[in-house]
Amino acid sequence: TKWVYSFGDGSAEGSAADRNLLGGKGANLAEMCSLGLPVPPGFTITTEFCTWHYANGRAYPDELKQQVTAALVGIGEITGRSFGDPSNLLLVSVRSGARASMPGMMDTVLNLGLNDETVDAMARESGDARFAYDSYRRFIQMYSDVVLGVDHGYFEEILEDEKAGLGVELDTEITADQWQQVIQLYKDKVEEELGQPFPQDPNEQLWGAIGAVFSSWMNHRATTYRRLHDIPASWGTAVNVQAMVFGNMGDTSATGVAFTRNPSTGEKQLYGEFLVNAQGEDVVAGIRTPQNLTEAARIEAGSDKPSMEKVMPEAYAAFVAVADRLEQHYRDMQDLEFTIERGKLWMLQTRSGKRTAKAALKIAVDMAAEGLISTEEAVLRIDPASLDQLLHPTIDPKAERNIIGMGLPASPGAATGEIVFSSDEAEEMRAQNRKAILVRIETSPEDIHGMHAAEGILTTRGGMTSHAAVVARGMGKPCVSGAGTLRVDYRNATLTAMGQVFRKGDIITIDGASGQVLKGTVPMLQPELSGDFASIMEWADAARRMKVRANAETPADARMARSFGAEGIGLCRTEHMFFDDERIVAVREMILSDAEADRRAALAKLLPMQRSDFAELFEIMAGLPVTIRLLDPPLHEFLPKSDEEIDEVARGMNISADKLRQRTEALHEFNPMLGHRGCRLAVSYPEIAEMQARAIFEAAIDAGQSTGKPIVPEIMVPLVGLLKELDYVKARIDEVAQAVMAERGVQLDYLVGTMIELPRAAIRAHVIAEAAEFFSFGTNDLTQTTFGISRDDASSFLETYRQKGIIEKDPFISLDIDGVGELVRMAAEKGRTARPDIKLGICGEHGGDPSSITFCEEVGLDYVSCSPFRVPIARLAAAQAAI
Ligand code: ADP
Ligand code: MG
Ligand code: MG
């Protein structure tokens, strides 16, 4: 088996396409070599060997040893040196490199091959003893730490003591003799810790380092990281062994890192740092303050340390040329690592650079404008989920932060406001046009109105999937959850944070992107929806097939949805319109009446309110489709709970509180999720559906006249399992339609359809499609009913399932393609067979989840519908799915 791939001197056995085999680092080193760029020669041991090694009792077969020895000879031929030969010393680095860059893997070991004998040879040959001993002490420290497991803290202590004794501050001030002393202390320490001396044999050193890389693939940090990022253990890591070049050979040598464009703004400018007379990780380790690469950046930073452009103009020019070449070649922003040895440039790494969401947009748009990539490629370059960061106000990065606590970044965006401790207070503030932050130990469904009214939500308990977090994300409200160091005292209305006491009305700021809680107001940056964002969205819209609608019922949400580009409403949940203070009384009267006549009287009070709600939605959507769902939840959700509320309703209805309590108890259900809800309500109480249908039709006619755009309402019947259920409700709706048209003397087009949210409905979709003019997949309920898992109770065990590897993702967040998805696919096909022009959409949480959207495209749905804040994400994901 070929386990070793060499690169160097303008050619390589592998290339960038071999990422899986050679790891990201090895594949790109090979590619750079083939491009003729200056790369120290080396070789890569493949990820396949890593897998073989673990499958075969961690063995190192002779075949591998022979290939490594041959490859080392190859490096020697290119460099004119020989590994382990003091008269002509070849030193190497040993670097790990998986397919995806992975923290937790073994750190790089530099200067491998040095020992007490070869270091003297190196000092003689280079004519620079300080350089030789500096390299050796680095090697002993790195190798002892990462291969032998001797804590690097010991070495740092020794060095600190030594520097203090010598009265010097910088490592670069230490002389050759002084380094020799440090080296002796280091070696003594290793022997003391391990009971044996530091290994002197270069071959033993090499195999020790190679073995350490392969071992690190299974260490705790790496396995945890893989689990969190869904990286399979079977991928394995590669090992790169590469001839050393030296950035620590005095003032004409240096080491640095750079991005070909600014990774936080996306600006097209080389961006990076370097250090003169330094090696490897010194730049990132912060041992000395690094210097800017370019003069422009130095001036902007106001630094008095000269730039590379200034002090090494030739090497700088060479580097700029290489950076340009690599960006053109890879057609993406690159993250580069390089070293200058006595004025000569060497490239040590290139990869696509990580960037902020904002930079990603700018880079993609700029590269499309430069002709480097197509607009479709630009669309594919943006992670849809990352747009979330851009759609909310954020704290100005230059702002001073007075942090008083830390929680989970539960819902992005930043918000400032006065502290309130209850949802009612939040509403009062809202009514006075004041901004509130709702501070609760935790929130419950009763806090929805307060969460709506507040600018942001802060809880001291609960995780990323707590009620507060989930609801806030749906509303697009900033939220910090589980800020455990804060104390909320409802009785005294105080928030205690780091010994400071805050009261109602005191101003705080929360940052839902970082989880920070800050004192006072903090300067913010408003979301930038024009410019690059608009360009990407425009290109995405041109590329996508599916429409994107929003789930919205309030005028504010509908307007927001339109401003984010929604092409209609896919789900208007009418029950959300019933919670209003004024309406809830009429709703309760309706529910609690024994007789149909009383119910109709109560419904008559609701009719004008519903009509104006719908008219406003139709006006805002101006002719775009609007799907309105008939009342869905079990009625007891609207019931009065506290004694005060019960008394109030009883007085209004002119009955005794006891009678009311009895009626309330009669409505109790053991399993409301599977109880008296959805179309079952319309079957039991058709007058409710009739009132809603009337409100919809009258509003459609009114809004059609006021906007001059014909409005075609789509009425959706929830929780249908039987054709006859739909037939029954549809007949009521049709009757009302005829009546309203006759009364108004106008014609009106409308559609009646159903949600597919029960397995039976999916199985019988071809039959249900006889009556349904559209299907909307209600994947929240369909997931609940397919799995037989209650969404409200699932969080306690689904996380355990995920940790134990039984499920990969929460099926309520990302559609379970194999199971629930199969039902969706089947129902879509059956529906189309029975009614070829049937409209198909999805309106569960999944409508805003990129991987679920990819599936919807595959099945050929006509649209996805999601919460307003996710509309841009869905537009982009739908485009990516179509490209
Ligand atoms: P990481 O994956 O943590 O970036 P690397 O393997 O890239 O680790 O090594 C870190 C640094 O070590 C490189 O950026 C480079 O500065 C230095 N380095 C690695 N190999 C060599 C080498 N052969 N010659 C000189 N410096 C090297
Ligand atoms: Mg690196
Ligand atoms: Mg449902």
From TrEMBL:
Q: What class of enzyme is it?
A: transferase
Name all PEP-utilising enzyme mobile domain ranges: 434-515
> Required cofactors, per record?
Mg(2+)
> Could you tell me which residue ranges the PEP-utilising enzyme C-terminal domain spans?
530-881
Give the UniProt keywords, A-Z: ATP-binding, Kinase, Magnesium, Metal-binding, Nucleotide-binding, Pyruvate, Transferase
Which reaction is this enzyme known to catalyze? pyruvate + phosphate + ATP = phosphoenolpyruvate + AMP + diphosphate + H(+)
Among the GO molecular function terms of this UniProt record, one is: ATP binding
Q: What positions does the domain Pyruvate phosphate dikinase AMP/ATP-binding occupy?
A: 20-53, 60-295, 314-369
Q: Return any one Pfam family short name.
A: PEP-utilizers_C
Q: Which residues bind substrate?
A: R573, R629, E757, G778, T779, N780, D781
EC number(s) reported in the record: 2.7.9.1
Q: Which residues constitute the catalytic centre?
A: H467 (tele-phosphohistidine intermediate), C843 (proton donor)
Q: Supply the NCBIfam families for this chain.
A: PRK05878.1, pyru_phos_dikin
Its biological purpose is as follows:
Catalyzes the reversible phosphorylation of pyruvate and phosphate.
Instruction: Check the record and name the PANTHER family matching this protein.
Output: PHOSPHOENOLPYRUVATE DIKINASE-RELATED, PYRUVATE, PHOSPHATE DIKINASE 1, CHLOROPLASTIC
Q: What name has this protein been given in UniProt?
A: Pyruvate, phosphate dikinase
What species is given as this protein's source? Answer: Aquamicrobium aerolatum DSM 21857
